[in-house]
C-alpha cells in the first residue's frame, strides 16, 4: 500500500470506518482478484530477526538486572538507594535516545531497507555492551566513569529504538496475510528469551560468585558475553532477504522517477498521519509500563521490599517470564482468528481490574512472586502479541518503519524508561499504591483507544 494512492483508513480489503469501531472481523480476507500478492517470507528470515532481537534485549536488560551490583562502581553516594537511583537514571537516559533511534532507523528502513536497518541496530547494541564491559570505574577515572556509562547507554538506546520498529515492520510485511498476527508477534519471543537469558545469567552468577566478587568483576561478565554474541547476531541478520513489500514500493518509486523525499516533506507526511500515530502511542503506553514493572522490575522489588533472597527472586522471575513465551504465540494466533481489538482489550481492561490484586500477592514468598508474574505475563501477552501487526496495518508502506519506530520508541522513552525510577522513588516514600493507580489510568486510556480505533486484521499492507 502506497501512501500516495490510498489512505490507511481505507486500505484495500479493510472494513469501512463506519463499521470499524462497531464490529470485529473474522479471518482476514484475500486481496482483490488480479492484485499481485508478495511472496511470503522464509521461516529462516523470521528466525534471523528474532535471534537478533533476543540478543538485543539481552544487551538491554542486563543493565537493569545488574544495576544493584555496579551502582557504587560508577556513582559515589552515602545512601545505597541514591546510588541505585543514579544508575536507574542512566537507564532512563538510555530511553531518551529511543525516539531518536526510532526516527533514524525508521528512515533508514524506509529508505535503505528493513534488512540494512536491523543489521546496523544489532551492531550498535553490541558495541554499547562492549563499552560497558571494559568501562573503568569511579576509582580509576573519577566522574568520567559515569560519563562512559552514559555514552554506552545512549548508544544502546539509539539502537534499541531502531530495532523494534524495523522488526515489527519487517515481519508484518513478510508474513502470510492470514498469519500476520502470529508472525508479527514473534519479536516478543525474542524479548522474552533475551530477558530470560539476562535473568538466568543473573541467577547463575549470583549463585557462583560472592557479593564482593559480583561488585568487583562479576557484573562485567554478561556485558562481555553480549558483545561476543553480537558478532553472531550480525552474521544472521546479513543472511536475511529484504521485505518484498518494501522492495516493490522502491521499484515502483524508481519507475515513476520519485527520489527520496526531502526532510521537510517527510515531516509533512508524518503530520498527515497523526491519527494512526496517536493510536500507536495509546496502545503502547500502558503495556510498556506494565512490562517494565512486572517483567523486569518485580524480582528486584520483591528482594528489596520484602527481604526475599535475591537468587530466589530471580528464579521466580525467570519462571514467571517463561509463561510469557507460551502466551505470546497463542495471543498472536487469536488475533488472526478473532481480530486485533478483542485481544488487545483483554490486556487493557483485564490489567486495570487486577493491577492491585497482583500487587497484594507480593511478599517474601518466591512462589507468590511467580504466580503474580505468571498472571501478569498472560495479560501482557494479550497486549504485546497483536502490536506488530496492528501497527503495520495502521500506517502506509512508505512511512511504516518511521511511524512505528517514532511512535513506539517515544512512548517507551516517556513511560517505560521512567517506570523503574518512578516506582523506586514512590516506594521509598511509602506511596507505591500511587504508581499502581498510574498504571491503571494508562490502561483505561488504552481501553478508549481500542474502542475508537479501526479493526485492521483484514488490511493489505502494500
From TrEMBL:
Give the primary localization class: membrane
Q: Which UniProt keywords apply?
A: Cell membrane, Membrane, Symport, Transmembrane, Transmembrane helix, Transport
Cell cycle found in the keyword field: no
- What's the protein's topology in the membrane? Multi-pass membrane protein
Q: Where is the composition biased (Low complexity)?
A: 7-24
Q: Indicate the transmembrane segments per the record.
A: 60-77, 83-104, 116-135, 141-161, 182-205, 217-236, 277-297, 312-331, 343-362, 368-391, 403-423, 429-451
Localization (cell): Cell membrane
Query: Where in the numbering of this chain does the Major facilitator superfamily (MFS) profile domain appear?
Result: 45-457
Q: Where is this region: Disordered?
A: 1-39
Q: Which domain of life is it from?
A: Bacteria
The protein, known as: MFS transporter
Give the organism the record lists. Citricoccus nitrophenolicus
Amino acid at each position: 500500500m502506497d501512501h500516495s494512492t490510498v489512505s490507511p483508513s481505507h486500505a484495500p480489503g479493510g472494513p469501512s470506518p463506519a463499521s470499524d469501531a462497531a464490529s470485529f472481523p473474522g479471518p482476514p480476507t484475500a486481496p482483490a482478484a488480479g492484485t499481485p500478492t508478495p511472496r511470503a517470507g522464509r521461516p529462516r528470515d523470521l528466525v534471523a530477526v528474532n535471534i537478533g532481537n533476543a540478543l538485543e534485549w539481552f544487551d538491554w536488560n542486563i543493565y537493569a538486572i545488574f544495576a544493584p551490583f555496579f551502582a557504587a562502581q560508577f556513582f559515589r553516594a552515602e545512601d545505597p538507594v541514591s546510588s541505585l537511583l543514579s544508575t536507574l537514571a542512566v537507564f532512563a537516559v538510555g530511553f531518551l535516545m529511543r525516539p531518536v533511534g526510532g526516527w533514524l532507523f525508521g528512515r533508514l528502513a524506509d529508505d535503505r531497507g528493513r534488512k540494512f536497518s536491523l543489521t546496523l541496530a544489532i551492531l550498535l547494541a553490541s558495541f554499547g555492551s562492549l563499552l560497558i564491559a571494559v568501562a573503568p570505574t569511579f576509582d580509576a577515572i573519577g566522574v568520567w566513569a559515569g560519563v562512559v556509562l552514559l555514552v554506552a547507554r545512549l548508544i544502546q538506546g539509539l539502537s534499541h529504538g531502531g530495532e523494534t520498529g524495523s522488526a515489527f515492520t519487517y515481519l508484518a510485511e513478510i508474513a502470510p496475510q492470514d498469519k500476520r498476527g502470529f508472525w508479527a508477534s514473534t519479536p516478543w519471543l525474542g524479548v522474552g528469551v533475551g530477558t530470560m537469558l539476562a535473568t538466568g545469567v543473573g541467577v547463575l552468577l549470583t549463585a557462583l560468585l560472592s557479593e564482593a566478587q559480583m561488585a568487583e568483576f562479576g557484573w562485567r561478565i554478561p556485558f562481555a558475553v553480549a558483545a561476543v554474541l553480537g558478532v553472531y547476531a550480525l552474521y544472521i541478520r546479513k543472511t536475511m532477504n529484504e521485505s518484498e513489500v518494501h522492495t516493490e514500493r522502491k521499484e515502483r518509486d524508481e519507475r515513476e522517477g520519485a527520489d527520496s523525499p526531502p526532510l521537510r516533506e517527510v515531516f509533512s507526511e508524518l503530520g498527515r498521519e497523526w491519527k494512526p500515530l496517536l493510536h500507536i502511542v495509546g496502545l503502547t503506553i500502558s503495556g510498556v509500563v506494565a512490562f517494565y514493572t512486572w517483567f523486569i522490575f518485580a524480582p528486584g522489588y520483591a528482594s528489596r521490599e520484602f527481604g526475599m533472597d535475591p537468587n530466589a527472586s530471580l528464579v521466580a522471575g525467570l519462571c514467571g517470564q517463561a509463561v510469557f513465551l507460551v502466551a505470546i504465540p497463542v495471543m498472536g494466533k487469536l488475533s488472526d482468528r478473532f481480530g486485533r481489538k478483542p485481544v488487545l482489550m483483554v490486556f487493557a481492561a483485564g490489567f486495570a481490574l487486577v493491577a492491585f490484586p497482583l500487587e497484594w500477592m507480593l511478599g517474601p514468598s518466591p512462589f507468590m512472586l511467580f504466580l503474580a508474574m505468571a498472571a501478569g505475563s498472560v495479560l501482557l501477552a494479550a497486549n504485546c502479541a497483536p502490536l506488530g501487526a496492528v501497527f503495520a496495518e495502521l500506517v502506509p508502506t512508505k512511512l511504516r518503519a518511521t511511524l512505528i519506530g517514532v511512535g513506539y520508541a517515544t512512548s517507551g522513552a516517556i513511560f517505560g524508561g521512567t517506570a523503574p525510577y518512578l516506582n523506586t522513588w514512590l516506594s521509598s516514600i511509602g506511596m507505591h499504591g500511587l504508581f499502581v493507580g498510574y498504571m491503571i489510568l494508562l490502561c483505561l486510556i488504552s481501553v478508549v483507544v481500542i474502542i475508537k480505533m479501526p479493526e485492521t486484521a483484514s488490511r493489505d499492507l502494500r
